[in-house]
């Protein structure tokens, strides 16, 4: 099943009434109850200005949307959507230490640049004792963005990930070292919705001993590259063409990344996807509580 992890503030899905936690069951007239996210996305995309019919099941399966499990239908007008996937803030701990917080809600072509800019902004005035990167609710997105973002935090020549195709040919992605910050302690906040490019990013930092993964549960476990092929009857099929392997040699598909440190404040209702950008200034009680437990905060 495909669950809505987030909607863009002011975007067409939000305006139509779709909420985080809704389970997508139909898109553009096709039953997508058992389809992959790639298939659902392919049915929802289309020419700007046209409409797509989307049906969701609210409650009784979603994690954050209220409801009784009934199916609700929406007409969503397709638009070009500009997403700002990185939101940054900082706070002073009781121990007098500056802790940076980066919320990354998705991975797009702009994410690595925005992360770099956000890191530079956090360093102004005084250095951060640690950085927490909130990947909770981040379902992934553009795979190369996860690779490029990881390079910002890894030493030169570190392995980011490996891509193995169906014939066994392996392509290894390594860090060229440009713009890397391999010194500040990093903590990655994850949950069961952290998937795909987010997992590539998290595994790259964890397997290279650059980050501690914090969460209540393992991540989603999406380690495959798939192409969506449309069929004559209007349906589509997702064809797997390759798999990802972490720097430590692990295949995380359907397994996910287990947290190094378990935290009860990483519940589904506290995910980045369920939070508004304003809540990422650490005024959110659960986030603040979690940040205060970091060793560098004291």
Keywords:
28% strand, single chain, 298 residues, 5-stranded antiparallel beta sheet, globular, 6 helices, alpha/beta, 6-stranded mixed beta sheet
Topology, element by element:
Blueprint: E1 2-3, H1 12-16, E2 23-27, E3 30-31, H2 37-44, E4 51-57, E5 71-77, E6 86-92, E7 98-104, H3 111-123, E8 130-134, H4 143-151, E9 159-165, E10 170-174, E11 186-190, H5 197-207, E12 211-215, E13 224-230, E14 236-245, E15 261-262, H6 285-292
* Euclidean distance between termini CA atoms: 42 Å
Structural class: alpha/beta
* H-E string: EHEEHEEEEHEHEEEHEEEEH
Estimated helix fraction:
10-25%
By DSSP (H or I, 4+ residues per run), the number of helices equals 6
Any low-confidence stretches, pLDDT <50, length ≥5?
A: 268-284
Structural shape: globular
Fraction of residues in β-strands = 25-35%
Rg (CA only): 19 Å
Mean pLDDT: 85
Which strand order do you get reading across the main beta sheet? 6-7-8-11-12-15
Total DSSP E strands: 15
Largest sheet: 6 strands, mixed
């Amino acid at each position: 099943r495909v669950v809505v992890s987030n909607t863009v503030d002011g975007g067409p899905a939000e305006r139509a009434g779709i909420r985080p936690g809704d389970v997508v069951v139909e898109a553009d007239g096709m039953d997508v109850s058992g389809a992959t996210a790639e298939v659902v996305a392919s049915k929802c995309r289309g020419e700007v200005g046209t409409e797509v019919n989307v049906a969701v099941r609210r409650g009784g399966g979603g994690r954050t949307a209220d409801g009784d499990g009934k199916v609700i239908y929406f007409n969503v007008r397709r638009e070009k959507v500009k997403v700002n996937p990185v939101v940054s803030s900082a706070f002073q701990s009781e121990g007098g230490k500056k802790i940076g917080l980066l919320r990354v809600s998705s991975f797009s072509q702009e994410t690595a640049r925005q992360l770099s800019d956000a890191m530079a902004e956090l360093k102004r005035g005084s250095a951060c004792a640690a950085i927490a990167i909130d990947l909770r609710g981040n379902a992934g997105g553009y795979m190369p963005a996860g690779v490029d973002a990881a390079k910002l935090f890894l030493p030169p020549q570190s392995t980011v990930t490996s891509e193995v195709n169906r014939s066994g040919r392996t392509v290894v992605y390594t860090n060229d070292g440009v713009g890397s910050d391999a010194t500040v302690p990093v903590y990655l906040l994850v949950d069961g919705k952290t998937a795909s490019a987010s997992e590539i990013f998290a595994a790259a930092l964890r397997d290279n001993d650059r980050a501690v993964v914090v969460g209540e549960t393992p991540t989603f476990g999406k380690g495959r590259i798939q192409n969506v092929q449309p069929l004559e009857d209007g349906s589509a099929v997702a064809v797997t063409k390759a798999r990802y392997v972490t720097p430590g040699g692990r295949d995380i598909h359907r397994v996910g990344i287990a947290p190094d440190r378990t935290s009860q404040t990483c519940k589904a209702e506290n995910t980045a996807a369920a939070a508004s950008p304003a809540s990422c200034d650490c005024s959110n009680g659960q986030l603040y509580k979690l940040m205060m437990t970091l060793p560098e905060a004291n």
